[in-house]
């Protein structure tokens, strides 16, 4: 049926629009013999935008998360590392080890019982990774807008408050 479409090496026929397209137009799919999804990215996007498909996918994802929360957590972490930091889980492990698996500010060590693990800290101006911090310290410097001037003012404020407390009679 598809022979007349002149499919060549490095191309594939979309199962939906029936056009011959380069392999880069197809999502990767380890379950397929050729390693690519059965339809091209635009056709897949159009299909997934249909309301009933969105509902089915959402229900499936919710059930999958309940069935295997640990695997889902690992997949989410891997996706986040790749998407935001272009980093594999092994590279993240190496970064954690480089920083002795502890926060760069408060020196709190990473524990498996922590709900929020150590996170990657980065400069909001350059995007450059600075190190590893606990969630509280990362949020703290973020709320202080990564400004050493504001941080110095906060330190002076706290020191002044402590001095005032020490002078008050008990």
Biggest pleated sheet = 2 strands, antiparallel
Alpha-beta classification? mainly alpha
Model regions low in confidence, pLDDT < 50 over at least 5 residues: none
Mean pLDDT, nearest integer? 86
Report on this model:
48% of the residues lie in helices and 9% in strands. It is mainly alpha-helical and 170 residues long. The chain has helices at 41-48, 51-67, 69-85, 89-98, 135-143, 148-167, and strands at residues 11-13, 20-22, 119-122, 129-133. It has 6 helices and 4 strands.
Element layout with pairings:
Blueprint: E1 11-13, E2 20-22, H1 41-48, H2 51-67, H3 69-85, H4 89-98, E3 119-122, E4 129-133, H5 135-143, H6 148-167
Antiparallel strand pairs: 1-2, 3-4
Helix pairs in contact: 2-3
What labels would you give this structure?
mainly alpha; two-stranded antiparallel ribbon; 170 residues; 4 strands; elongated
Quick synopsis:
This protein is mainly alpha-helical.
């Amino acid at each position: 049926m598809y022979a007349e479409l002149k499919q060549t090496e490095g191309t594939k026929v979309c199962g939906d629009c029936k056009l011959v397209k380069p392999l880069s137009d197809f999502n990767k799919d380890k379950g397929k013999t050729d390693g690519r999804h059965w339809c091209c990215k635009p056709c897949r996007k159009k299909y997934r935008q249909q309301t009933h498909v969105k509902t089915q996918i959402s229900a499936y994802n919710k059930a999958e998360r309940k069935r295997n929360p640990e695997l889902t957590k690992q997949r989410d972490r891997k996706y986040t590392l790749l998407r935001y930091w272009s980093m594999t889980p092994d590279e993240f492990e190496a970064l954690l080890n480089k920083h002795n698996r502890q926060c760069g500010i408060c020196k709190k060590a990473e524990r498996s019982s922590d709900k929020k693990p150590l996170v990657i800290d980065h400069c909001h101006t350059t995007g450059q990774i600075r190190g590893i911090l606990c969630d509280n310290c990362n949020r703290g410097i973020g709320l202080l807008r990564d400004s050493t001037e504001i941080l110095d003012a906060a330190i002076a404020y706290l020191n002044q408050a402590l001095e005032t407390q020490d002078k008050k009679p008990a």
